[in-house]
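User: Can you predict the 3D structure for this chain?
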Amino acid sequence: MSFAILIAGAYFKPFLILLSGFICAIFLVIFHYLIFYSVNDCKINYQLSRTVKFEVIESVSAKSPFYIKARLINIESCERIIRPAPLAMLSITSDKPLLSGDLIEGKVKLKRYRSVKNFDSFDSERNALKERIFYKGRSVGEVSSYGHQQGNNIREQYQQYIASITDNTHLQWLYYALLTGDRSKISYDDNTQLRELGLTHLLAISGLHIGLIYAIGFYTSKWLVKISKLQINQAYQLNNVFVLFGFICALIYVYLSDFIVSATRALVMLGCYLVIYQLGKNPLRWRSILYALTLVLLIDPFALLNPGLYFSFIAVTIIFLLTKHTLDIKLGLIKRISQLMYVQLALFFGLLPLSLFYFDGTSVIGLIVNLIAVPLVGLVLLPLLIFYSLISSFLDVVSLLSLVDSVLSFGYQLLLSIPKHWRWFSFSEVNSSLLTISYLSLLILLFSPNKYLSLLPLFIYFIDCKLQPQVQFQVDVFDVGHGLMVMISANKHALIYDLGPRHFSRYDYINRVLVRNINKHALTVSATLVSHLDNDHAGGLSSWYRAGYRDTFSTFHPEGLRKTCDNKQLRFEGLNIHSFHADVTGDNRNDHSCLLKISSTNYSVLLTGDISALAEATLIEKGVDLHATVLLSPHHGSNTSSSVRFIDAVNPEMVIHSSAYQGQWHFPHPEVVKRYQQRHIPQFSTAEQGHIRILFYRDSYRLEFAREQESYWFEQD
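Assistant: Here is the predicted structure, written as structure tokens:
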């Protein structure tokens, strides 16, 4: 490294310090990755089970098979190395409930953590990397318990104590989250509603809470010294003692929250601010931001993957830009409110690009709600909860919390009565390029002496948009593991083919993948077709009903889903749609699958469900036009399908296999792959490419793969 810096510095002397920092940062990231994120030294074969000892961190499901987050203490045939134990998501069959802290031993099939990868959806793999979850697996046979890890007794006792004193309240999840930092008691509905109201940030322990705890500690110590009337030598700097006591209180608060990322980040920023203050450095605020950011990234360079990092530091930067001094509490009520509104408005527009990028929308009502909620939570509720938690151990003050809970619950219900479309504005098809260019134009407008230059980026963008070819229709083959879920869209209308699998009778891909893509692109679902009722094709049916799309089955299933779909030809946004099936006798439900052919002037797509070679032969003998540009392989690439005659009849330019990565069926079958290879037909698989998107233009088409958009070197397969 030194040699590299020396050579570079000889050519770029003015940039030697910057270059040195850059090179050091690269080595720091690599070192951090090798120590904390690399597990390549342990060779895992999913086909083989091995004895694994692990500690249960969290149980996601309440019945067997239990889906748990576990810390892998020991893996058979893997050397113990000096690094933190990796985490894993495991499916464990057990007669007894698995509780946090349980030490378990048993035969487990492990594989590297790999989830489905879809456009415009939550990235589970990146989230797992952030949490150091490197494996997933399932138990083989029964497991046995060999003890219980007490863990941090103080922290566990504190959480149990807070849970007990806030029990039987309407908003327990709120009080528990504020006092412990644990948001596990917040339901999905409450979390969604808080996001719509723009109040989610109040529950994440951050700068607001850390600053308040510090202030309580600072002024409490000052008050105690004052009332004690101690004779103290003037040589002692009591202010340093007050500062230290306040910081210790904040540290204890973060410790009890289990050092969650947002709380730790805020504590680091507070520490940097206080150190620079004691050193008398100026400008104080900018130094504290830069030093805090540097320290956070030194501790964990992969914190850059956490959206909270950007929200935190950008929000603080915006506040520092707007206020030369801290908010003056001596201001009159009107001026104080106007100042808060000014800051809140600036935060709304400053954080808007991040909100659109990560959440596809923003809470507008939050501009008003936060003017009341932030002072209420920060200056009233949190101090009250701290006071309540301190005295509840020796005084019965349940009535105090009950009164506060009743008032807050009533106010919360009033907020929920606000119509949903007033609470949350979804921005479909947020174009990151347009967003970036718009803010670039704004910066030029604010800081450039030539204001007309601000129009140049927008002008270039709109010219580029006009020159882009128009998409006639689009086909999305979603990555749902072993299953099938396809969306055909044109002119803001969509047609859905199959609904993917459901796992453990409680988990599917409807809301987090399909509905999210529909909302992202502002699509109207015109019709839904289910090829057959196997779980891997219709598992998401109940979720689809709950999402409000029950009526979309009437086009292809007028007599219900228990009967095979209608043979029908219709027009859909300039496309020819043909639904049909093979009239095959027998009980094989796969052969009764409904097929769908989508055709434009120059291109066509054939969706085949799970038909076997028998159904393929029947369709060929009937003279059905099977020729298509794109073929979705029958039965996920099973060797029972994709016969030679069928491949020749379709004669596709490409074939797509919707299959699971290292699935138990090993689809697509090697023999099937070989048949397509012999005819020089390109093959793509959702197992390898993730979500596959095909954009059809007038005279050409283009493929996009979700896994090709993995932009970080450590995410590449």
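The chain is about 45% helix and 15% strand. The longest strand covers residues 49-59.
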